[in-house]
Amino acid sequence: MPILEAKGLNKHFGGLTAVSQVDFHVDEGEILGLIGPNGAGKTTLFNLISGAIPMDSGTVIFKGTKISGLTPNKICRLGIGRSFQAAKNFAGMPVRQNVLMGALFGQKGQSYAQAAKITEEVLDFVGLAEQADKMVPDIPLAHQKRVEVARALATRPSLLLLDEMMAGLNPAEVDEAMALVTKIRQSGISIIMIEHVMKAIMNICDRIVVLHHGAKLAEGTPSEISASKAVIEVYLGEALS
Amino acid sequence: MIITTILNIVIGGLIMGGIYAIISMGLSIQYGVARILNVSHGEIIMFGALLTWALQSSGVHPMLALLIGCPAAFIVGFVLHRTIYKRLKDISPTQGAFEGNAMLVSFGIMYVLANIAMMIWGNQQKGYSFMAYAVNFAGTSIPVNRLFVLVIALIVSVLFYLFLTRSRLGKSIRAASQDATAAMMMGVKINRVAAICFGIGAVLAAIAGALISMIYQVNTTIGLGYTVIAIIVVVLGGMGSVPGSMLGGFILGFIGSAVSYKDPSLSMVAYYLIIMVLLLVKPKGLLGR
Amino acid sequence: MKILNKIKYPLVMLAFVALLAVSPIFNSSDYYIRQMSSIIMFMVVSLSWTIFSAPTGYISLATAAFYGVGIYFTAFLGEYLPLPVLMLLAGLISFVLAFLVGAITLRLRGVYFTIFTFGLVELLKNVVLWAEIKYSHTRGRFVASFPPMTVFYCILGTLVVVMILAYIIKRSRFGYALVSIGESEDAAAHIGINTTMVKILAFAVSSFAMGAVGAAMATRWNYIDPPIAFNATMSFMPVLMAIFGGMSNMAGPLIGAAVFAYLQEILITSPAVGKTYMLIFGAVMVVAILFLPNGLTGVVNKLRKTRKGAEGSHAHTGS
Fold this sequence. Notes:
Chain A contains nine helices and ten strands. Chain A has helices spanning 42-50, 72-78, 95-105, 112-126, 141-153, 171-186, 198-204, 222-227, 229-235; strands at residues 2-13, 16-27, 31-35, 57-62, 65-66, 80-82, 159-163, 190-194, 207-212, 215-220.
């Protein structure tokens, strides 16, 4: 059962085509990987889905409702959460307050008490309880990335968009992040993740979509993708497992 | 006669357009590269106008004043950037914070400059007679000074455009305004180019001021009005696009000329309506990116 | 003790206002009353300005527009209505105007907003000038006068209102939304905040008091015209005061306002400086931004922190 269906997504900036006729879907409870070389249009695709930028044409249907054309805050309220490639944490606030903002605004009519409860739950869930009172810039990078994820989780999404959550992490941190992503899926949230860290993509994704120059190059399971000639060509010898 | 009216409006439009184009290209080049929305731009225009008047009353020919003023203005702009704005860039945490702070700093500089001028010259109107004889053309009599200013304004605009598109420095400037990081990687010294652009912007402002003094009466309070017009034109043409500013300058000049014919005090109102509509419909401007 | 800490701040503010309220007992000269009215007016305007512009980082230069609207409101209707009513209505008109302007320009990002607010003052000046000449065949107007005491207490009352408003907003959901927008507008939108609406509302709220005090201060002139009413300096001053005084707490803008309002009074009457006092203020603005990024209260906070030592990071975004 697809939780998200995207058909015919198109976006250009001036003369540059960022996303071209992209169709894909995400099944409920699945982790979908989104990969491709830099500039392939992955983040733009996220921006189209989350409502951050308007699409030139195409439709996105989420849980049966058409969300293409809605503003990001409405899409968030409908149940899509997101993290950003260039971390957009609230740097002037402690970790706890970052997550609290997500809890407070992510759903309609949350009381402070309810939001506070959600905040503590999420902080525990992602393992940030100890860091909760520290200011975001004062904690290690791996934890900073988690703050964004936590904030998005606090909005109680059904679908989570993770944009390069593992960039800049060392192998041990990558393993921890992978465990977290799996844990998130186990709690019932579907996930689309943009990643360059192939270990993560190959091991935790159920399916993968490959973008190249804004168009969908390939789609399939990790083993299908790692065997695909077209994909290998595009990545030119980059290790795929 | 219809032809006279049209001719007057066209010539008025070209003159206004030429001047607007110059002041806006100056503002645009400062924003495009240095990312500074220079609210004190109008004060340089004012200084250009008043210094020309002052020199003229000591017997210096206005064109000579203009030529002397250019390097002087460049130095002022360059130094301002190197000392104040560059430090601001170093201490601002984000690009957004820098742009906001730079604009506020330029606001402060505006008051400093305007008040220095007031201390020197007071606030009465100053005017002088320059090429005040007229020629006849197609049944209407046109003051030669207006024709002169028109020609100079057009020449300056075209020269500047050519400078930007043909010269090596011009190309660096355009590269830097499109993508500062990429330009840096190609060897463009961004900080120096930014300071140069700020200087060039000041030069254009000074030239415009000198030209304005040749055909209008001027005083120490004209700065803000011209700054606002320059901002409107830059937004109209597209922020960061110098050709856009040139185009926008002429468009606004013609609209202003036409509207002034009906009711001079309505020209500003017309400009604002345009920018309001523009911000609603196409905020990136005509040639904006 | 926690409760004492919580109400310490409001108590100080209350004491301050009370002190101002009874001060005419000690000095009821016309000069003092007018002087204090002016200073308190600047406090109102700069605190109001920070309600929207401080957390979001959107620099509004429209203050003079709303202030001028207030002035003209009194110029038109000063003969017919009591001052508090005039202020209330002028405030409402400013609110509506700000709402409209905000609706147009706040869906775009920072620099366009600032540009438009900057132009709004000039626009209103030109429109009103054109309309007055065309329809009233006059350039300026005479303004009804009100007793300075009345003006003083009305403006003081407005200060109380703004202080309460600023206090409540800062601690409310709405205030948190504003801060989030200032930290990262994209992220704020993606966690469910209707950023456009929040911005527009905050901008409108902040303009209310500006119009209100404009209506009150109109009486200090006998005669006004558009350049007097819509003067860009009135847009510049609250920014200067807030930057110099600091925006991390409520005291900052108030201190900044007191300093510069008083300084203005001294400089404008001094033979050496006179009307060119703005030169000094302009220079102070430049220096303040370059060397005092968190303003005066920021410096004080820093000193307090270094003295307290490792007391841990400040727990929230502002007191």
